[in-house]
Write a structure and sequence with these properties.
With 615 residues, this protein is α+β, with helices and mostly antiparallel strands. It folds into five domains: 88 residues, GIY-YIG endonuclease (3-Layer(aba) Sandwich), CATH 3.40.1440; 132 residues, no CATH class; 115 residues, 2-Layer Sandwich (Nucleotidyltransferase, domain 5); 157 residues, Nucleotidyltransferase, domain 5 (2-Layer Sandwich), CATH 3.30.420; 51 residues, DNA polymerase, domain 1 (Orthogonal Bundle), CATH 1.10.150. Helix content is 45%, strand content 19%. It contains 20 helices and 19 strands. The strands form four sheets. Strands 12, 13, 14, 15, 16, 17, 18 and 19 form an eight-stranded mixed β-sheet that branches. Helix 1 packs antiparallel against helix 2 and helix 13 packs across helix 16. The longest helix has 35 residues.
Length: 615
């Protein structure tokens, strides 16, 4: 530990065990990170201890810390509020800052005589009424366009009443029932303004209430024998109902809620938000940030940041996992809303499906952001969730043992990097510590040798190979293999590496994941199941292929020992020199004599064994 880290750790150990906010500064006294803690001493001292447990991004941040300050508060809630406020003021380099490629957008209702509805990117001081801001430009523009079609509002550039009856006949939109043609006097000002008001209500409040009211107006018009008006209202109702049917993502149980899900890969995190109103999805957003903290901390920080610049907070918020400081976050959003807010983790049913949908969106967006396939990112994220891992396993090692009744005992190690085979990381092992059949001892020996190599190369800065610590280890086997290897990891101080077994059914297909004390069913997790199956098939293929090659060499050596003058050692020397049995068989006497330890007489014996008498 260098002098700077030692000084900062000494200072951190003097902090009180009270809630508060800590402020990291660089050598120019510029604020580079702001965080909160339940107990300042415990949280801040972690930064300046061993750097091996930190991510690359955290180590980079710590490298730039020259000093830190802190503010003590009364509760974790106050710490959260203060943290959000300070982050807004200083926008530190290493903090989670929600940024996307969308600006704010507005719905504009202009005019007092003849009203006009449009979507705008900016808000002007022009006397018009603006609704918003909204963060999704796509949502705003589509909603306005759809509302104008349903309520037959003009989408042209004509100004009313100036341009009324200046054209001879209506445009095409009138004839396809997407405009009421005020330019030709086909609708009165009162009727047009009422349509604009209904369109605004449709956009801001959904269509359930407006449909009921329009149906009542339609029935009233029919009773009054105003059949043209009733027909127009009927067409509007049908258009609204058709629009409702287009929306496939529906929440039957919870009418208003936000759904959050997170995906992590390549030291990046994507947060996906699905927003529901009137039981239907009306907006979706996504944000990226660096993976500087554990996921429970990230969830708290990103959700708090998200609502810190929004007023529309629903009564229900669904999330995909554990939140650090849940009580403080609940109090924070409830205070902003003015009413209680329920933050919960759906475990089954409709809302759990909505969380899965949000997670799939997060995986796809993150895959595009980091240049990978959405399939691999989603599979790794699902596997991490299934196994309860703290982060997505980007570097997975898998091991399998292969032998024939204890003979030619070998092992294969394969690597999947970013969800795909990483063949430069593959390794073969010959079991040397004993002879005979014992898969548990074989697996223990292989992992011991592997992590002996890790101790030798861990400071080499390798991105792959024995110098890199795996994010996850999958053994081909069940609980026995897991229990045999776990003491090895403990002995090397690597018990933080997740370790599981891959269990097969009686048809040699992947059935479950084995832990030290039981099994996890994976058949209902399609992406994770496919990934684990691919890993298990590949490690089995790799180890069996090596076993067959070694077995072939053994059989060749046994054949060679049948030749007069050739024992086990000379057989090994011949195989080492010629590489293959076929090459030995084709060699001339002179070529055989070139092998160390092979006399001319022995060479002639070998030649006659394969080719008959020497002509």
């Amino acid at each position: 530990m260098d002098e700077r880290l030692r000084r900062l750790r000494t200072k951190a150990m003097k902090l009180p065990l009270e809630p508060g906010v800590y402020i990291m500064k660089d050598k120019t006294n510029k604020i580079i990170y702001i965080g909160k803690a339940k107990a300042l001493k415990n949280r801040v001292s972690q930064y300046f201890g061993s750097q091996n447990n930190h991510t690359v991004k955290v180590r980079k941040m710590v490298e730039n810390v020259a000093d830190f300050d802190y503010i003590i508060v009364k509760s974790e809630f106050e710490a959260l509020v203060l943290e959000c406020s300070l982050i807004k003021q200083h926008t530190p380099k290493y903090n989670i800052l929600l940024k996307d490629d969308k600006g704010y957008h507005y719905i504009k209702i202009a005019g007092t005589d003849w009203k006009n509805l449009s979507s705008e990117k900016q808000k002007f001081d022009d006397g018009a009424k603006y609704l918003g801001p909204y963060t999704s430009s796509d949502c705003v523009s589509k909603s306005v366009t759809e509302a104008c079609k349903i309520f037959r509002l003009p989408s042209c550039s004509k100004v009313f009443p100036r341009d009324i009856k200046k054209s001879g006949r209506p445009c095409l939109n009138y004839y396809i029932k997407q405009c009421s043609a005020p330019c030709c006097g086909k609708i009165s000002r009162e009727e047009h303004n009422a349509a604009v008001e209904n369109a605004v209500r449709f956009i801001t409040g959904g269509n359930d209430t407006i449909v009921r009211e329009l149906k009542k107006q339609m029935e009233q018009a029919a009773e009054n024998l105003e059949f043209e008006k009733a027909a127009a209202l009927r067409d509007t109702v049908q258009a609204l109902e058709k629009t409702s049917k287009k929306q496939n993502v529906v929440s039957q149980k919870t009418k208003e809620q936000d759904v959050f899900a997170f995906c992590e890969a390549a030291d990046k995190i994507c947060m996906s938000v699905l927003r529901f109103s009137q039981g239907r999805l009306y907006d979706s957003e996504y944000f990226f940030t660096d993976a500087l903290e554990d996921m429970p901390v990230v969830r708290e920080k990103m959700i708090a940041d998200y609502y810190s610049f929004r007023d529309g907070i629903p009564a229900n918020i669904a999330v995909d996992g554990e939140i650090d400081g849940l009580e403080a976050l609940s109090e924070f959003v409830a205070q902003k809303r003015g009413k209680n807010v329920r933050i919960y983790i759906p475990e089954k049913g409709e809302n759990a499906s909505l969380v899965d949908l949000a997670r799939s969106n997060a995986a796809e967006k993150l895959a595009q952001h980091i240049g990978r396939t959405g399939k691999s990112v989603a599979a790794l994220d699902e596997l991490a969730t299934l196994l309860g891992l703290d982060k997505t396993p980007e570097y997975i090692e898998s091991y399998d043992i292969s032998h024939t009744d204890g003979a030619d005992n070998v092992a294969g190690m394969i690597v999947f990097k970013d969800g795909k085979p990483f063949k430069s990381g593959y390794r073969h092992f010959q079991i040397k510590g004993f002879s005979g059949q014992d898969d548990y001892r074989s697996m223990e020996e292989v992992l011991t040798r592997r992590f002996n190599e890790y101790e030798l190369h861990k400071n080499d800065g390798e991105d792959s190979g024995f110098g890199r610590k795996p994010d996850l280890i999958l053994l081909d086997g069940g609980i026995g293999q897991v229990n045999a290897v776990k003491p090895v990891l403990d002995r090397f101080g690597l018990s933080d590496i997740p370790l599981f077994g891959m269990v097969k059914d009686n048809k040699h297909r992947t059935r479950a994941i084995a832990t030290g004390g039981g099994e996890i069913t994976i058949n209902d997790k399609r992406r994770a199941f496919t990934l684990v199956s691919d890993i298990q098939e590949e490690v089995h293929r790799f180890s069996v292929e090596y076993h067959r090659k070694k077995q072939a060499k053994t059989l060749t050596a046994m054949t060679l020992t049948e030749i007069e003058g050739v024992g086990k050692e000379r057989a090994k020397t011949l195989l080492s020199h010629f590489k293959t049995h076929s090459a030995i068989r084709k060699a001339s006497v002179e070529q055989l004599c070139e092998v160390k330890g092979i006399s001319r007489k022995t060479a002639e014996n070998i030649y006659r064994f394969y080719n008959g008498e020497n002509e």
